[in-house]
Specification:
The structure holds two protein chains of two kinds. Chain A is of the alpha/beta class. Helices cover 36% and strands 14% of the residues of chain A. In chain A, α1 (23-40) crosses α11, α2 (65-76) packs across α11 and α5 (144-158) packs across α6. The radius of gyration of chain A is 20 Å and the shape is globular. Chain B is α/β, with parallel strands linked by helices. In chain B, the strands form four sheets. In chain B, strands 1, 2, 3, 4, 5, 6, 17, 18 and 19 form a nine-stranded mixed β-sheet that branches. Classes of the chains: A alpha/beta, B alpha/beta. Chains A and B meet through α8 of A and α3 and α4 of B.
Chain lengths: 333, 442
Amino acid sequence: MVGDSASSDFQHRHLLGIEGLSPQEITALLDKSEQYVDQNRQADKKVDLLRGRTIINLFFENSTRTRTSFELAGKRLSADVINMSVAQSAIKKGETLIDTAMTLNAMHPDILVVRHGESGATQLLAEKVNCAVINAGDGSHEHPTQALLDALTIRRRRGNLEGLLIAICGDILHSRVARSNIHLLVTMGAQVRLVAPLTLLPSSVAQMGVEVFHDMKKGLQDCDIVMMLRLQNERMEGNFIPSIREYFLFFGLDYDKLSVAKPDALIMHPGPTNRGVEIDSVVADDFSRSVIREQVEMGVAVRMACLDILAQNLQEERLKKPLKALRFEKENT
Amino acid sequence: MNVTWTAAMPGDTVGKRAYVNARLLDPATGMDEMGALLTDGETISDVGPHLFTGGSPEDIPTIDCNGYCLAPGLVDIRVQIREPGEEHKGTIESAGRSATAGGITTMVCLPNTNPVIEDMSVVEFVARRARLIGLSKIYPYAAVTKGLGGKDLTEMGVLSQAGAVAFTDGERVIADAQVLRRALTYARTFDLLIIQHPEEPSLATGVMNAGEMATRLGLSGIPPIAETIMVERDIRLVELTGGRLHFAHVSTAEAIDAIRKAKVKGLQVTCDTAPPYFALNETSVGEYRTFAKLSPPLRGEEDRQAVVEAIRDGTIDVIASDHAPQDEDSKRLPFSEAAYGGVGLETLLSVTLELYHNGHMSLLDALAKVTCAPADLLDLQAGRLQAGGRADFTLFDPGRGWQVHADDLASKAKNTPFDGRPVQGMVLRTVIDGRTVYRVDV
């Protein structure tokens, strides 16, 4: 039931990444999300759950869909949502990340949703504030709500994650989505394959419990799920691939390469898609296979669930130990 | 002595031909026996000592080899053709005439043409022109970096599908470590080979080998460590990336040592050298002979001996001609201003046979370096006397002496560093796809 006050299996103050979460914790987040999927399909999508709470969407990197998704999630839970993007922030005036964090902390927000271009920046910020922090993407490190919404999409279509053969294809090197998905899917017992040119694979990635391929047709063989990643041109410092043409020819998803996957294999993409780069337009638009739009829908539900659970956890923590004044304390102290 | 070339046109029909009374030499199988070879159309249908033991066949045109050596056509993996772009220095036809006169039936050409071989159309142009001219077969390398600029990778996947057999920036070194790292990594995606000209450019600013000779001549020197440093660095990159790297024309003892150790470690590293580096040393520069201005430069005697030893012990996998035609305007200049490079197609076999005549290695082992070894390196269907294989072979007299005269070379460019050298071993006939394209009537 939405707004259920019983504490869940997820007992952390922050959601900074998927790495280290247990299957029970992930399942708790997904179960809660499931409730919000139904709510979001009703005419009245709003509940009073987070009334009076303040959420700040702190985006140091441009984003439209993730920010909108979080904003909508907060508003549907009746929280007060503020969007701060880097273009307007004090960072431009030379303030450090930690100064920004402490300034915002002084305004008593309940949840900070943070996206930053540098890996680890969200964690650094989380160490300095009293509120809950959700990582909305840090550099090439993690993007936990994306992995959760992908998992929810798969779970609703296939019933379960365990035992599925899932290929993650494309620019793994620069992708936080890939890392979060690898952690989540491996933890939940799926069999994960990575398919990419070797220049776009980080070193020693096989030690994360995945199988590595650099031939699409071998990598997609018999897969249940094909997850495409966006070629991140903005993170391409130097020469990782010779040309878009060659990339599409060998690593772009088209019907020919898809033909070796299971006949009912689902196609996923975190968006925004580069049509004709990592995915053929007709494949992306094939709604018998592509669940790209469904992923976006699940995104709002997952973010509502995360906000809900973290707000509850914060409340319980504050009941146990009331916040007196501005004091910087470490988590779990 | 009457020399003739006959271009082989794909439309020409060829029936059966019997080559009898030949000393069959096939380094791939170790065969060295008297016997015969039978071609049918463009392929070898049978070969060995068992053929025609009852005498020459009556119903098949027969060529008596007079006991001379019949070996696989040579495979030369380092040739600069100059076409397209610098046809005044060399053309596909000129290279084809020169190659077949040297017993070479397959050439692999560097991408430093104009335009550079870095897109499918140039790859196909070279292959098509070679077929039309009907002399030696030509396979192209494609560039590793766009415009041979050392920065942005070419479309190696597409180029490999179009027919590029491996990737190299030709005479240019891939100097930037990050670029070579990415090239090796990207190439491994498709299991492609990268070929490096190993020379640290900041040290290779001179015009000949650094040492006493350069000092006396007042010429700026290139120290041998220019090669060693690049080879050692690149081996580290191979270790990091798991890629496959081939070093072209190694010329120094220390670089060879580094390669020897890398091979022991199991790294995918190979190398070749060219005849000047085991047959000549820096003294050939003499009084500013620009035909002896090569890149890398001719080294000292100790390095030359180390090259011979490395060919013998297998550290050097392949011998390639490093054919680099230059016109007179590029060579008739003060030494420092003259162009680098020498032609080498017609002397590849004879100078390689010096290793045999001088007792360094067996005839079969010497031939392996210019036949099956280069074919295996690039995975070419060549370099073997094998039933069912293409009928590409050469007939030569290993003992016949001749003197290299630059002006007599079939090649359009005459810049041989071996000008005036007496050599042993003469090609009498070259057969490509079952057709005699070159013959000498003695």
